[in-house]
Amino acid sequence: MSEPAQQTPAATPGNTPGKRVNRREEILRAAADVFASQGFHNASLADIAATLGITPAGVLHHFGSKTDLLTAVLELRDSADPPPKGRRFLDHLVDTAERNAARPGTTRLYAVLSAESVTEGHPAQDWFRHRYAELRADVEAAVVDRLDPGAAVPAADGVPEAARPTREAAAAILAVMDGLQVQWLLDPDAVDMAAVTRLVADALVTHLAGTGDGPAAGPGAADRTA
Amino acid sequence: MSEPAQQTPAATPGNTPGKRVNRREEILRAAADVFASQGFHNASLADIAATLGITPAGVLHHFGSKTDLLTAVLELRDSADPPPKGRRFLDHLVDTAERNAARPGTTRLYAVLSAESVTEGHPAQDWFRHRYAELRADVEAAVVDRLDPGAAVPAADGVPEAARPTREAAAAILAVMDGLQVQWLLDPDAVDMAAVTRLVADALVTHLAGTGDGPAAGPGAADRTA
DNA sequence: GTCTATAAATTGATAGAC
DNA sequence: GTCTATCAATTTATAGAC
Prior knowledge:
Two copies of one chain form a homodimer. Helices cover 61% and strands 0% of the residues of chain A. The longest helix of chain A has 23 residues, at 125-147. Chain A has helices at residues 23-38, 45-52, 56-62, 66-76, 88-100, 104-116, 125-147, 165-186, 193-210, 219-225. Chain A folds into two domains: 1-80, Orthogonal Bundle (Arc Repressor Mutant, subunit A); 82-225, no CATH class. Chain A binds a DNA duplex through helix 3.
């Protein structure tokens, strides 16, 4: 899921370097824009091709099918710098919410595609399923570490993962971020994505600490960090 | 937003009562199913018509256009019994999450359509924008009432609505519910929608009570109710 | 009132020119 | 390697039969 499957031709022989860097990437950017505006199903190859002044078939030369194009667009994200693991991951999420408010296009891309992916036979279904599973684990690790600095996520202790309070908190934090995006995209003045994300993270950590779940961790410590 | 715009012919003259109650409603149910499975844009009138054994044009006779059909499907929800206002509204949300887990079709319908509605020129955009605005107000009223039983939501006191902690909590609770639906639809065993919704509602109420926001309200009171 | 036949436009994708 | 001409299938919607 992390390795870019498609080879990125560092400098295609017939390409004048500096004149046109990479046609594939131009198409990728155009496709990301159009998918963000229209969703995957409603977007047409013609829309994407028109952005670049070519025909739909021109796009399909570089990517075998519309589905392949979507896959490549999603894989783009994995190119970015890796997020911090552990305690700092929660702050990173709040930062992400803040940055998302400055780039509606990218925000809409993932908001629309993630929800669209639950439709029958959607090509991005596996990608998002795995992505959420991974993120839930990462966020849980961050929550556990904040409750009890240095601790690791406890192994299976009888109850299923989904029922573990720290895992529930992780699912909740991710869910808030996603849900806020839709509300914000519909009405940017109605919600502050970063502020609400921070509020929920703080509230959950405080709550779990008070419930007697984490071994120690005073309420104050958890309160101030996110 | 509450009144059904389309007239519901109580008993069309030429209709044998009891044999076929209402062709419109049959189409509406079929459309809801297909929109839930495919989303609005990807769904075709042919898919809907096939369910009933007729042609696409047969569907368009009852509803002037595909968009009108979507509008009618969304308006269906307003027919249900009205949810409780005030304090009990939070419990109602948890109940809703639990019921949603038993009807994936309806859950998917709103999860897919709400996110799809943020795409450019989507016909359901206004509907969802208004829906969220209304829900945020209702949920905030419930949160306020739980923090300080009997109290009402304070009028504008300088800070914008979106920045008021109780309003932020309301947006958060709705966002969690929406985000959880996507995670759950992708992987039903990974999350318990009702449990996590309750967790977040409790955590937020406790947190706001502790922050010194609500006038009084002991932590214990808020803890036990949701 | 209920619906089929039909049209006009658009879709993703193949085959092949340059 | 880059892309256009072209195709077969599917789209929403109109006009009109019953």
